[in-house]
Amino acid sequence: MCPGGLILLPRDLLVRGVAAVALNDTKSWRRAVGFVKTLTLERSDVFPFALSGATVGGVRCTLSRSSIRIDQVRHALHALVEGQQLLS
Q1: Range(s) of the domain holding residue 72
Q2: Are 73 and 79 contacting, i.e. CB atoms less than 8 angstroms apart?
């Protein structure tokens, strides 16, 4: 499941009028943040890359792939910010 799916669930619930369930979904947002953190490349992950310094902070598409696409970073950040706004 993509991080956005975990985070955008509260909006769907709010639209349907189930605010109590959506407000309880802070745990889901925190799990999504943790999941995105596991996808985010750190210094210890990038040693095999030709431009290792440029890849730090990149977001992998999946845990089993090392490829990075710029839209993955954008999608992950957008979903986390939107989830935070819904919970605020």
Answers
A1: 3-87
A2: no
